[in-house]
Amino acid sequence: MQKYCSSKTGSCVADAIAAHEPLRTQDAMYLHLVYNRKRIQMIKKGDLL
Description:
Number of strands: 0
Distance between the termini: 36 Å
Helix content: 55-70%
Oligomer: single chain
């Protein structure tokens, strides 16, 4: 069963790796990257410090 993970941390990725679940790992890493890309863009615009 897949648990809910916050995109704010890398714990989802680590949990999926530890569980030997490659598809869950891929999904978690993708969401982690999307979240961080958005935050970086917001920081560059000055919307988030």
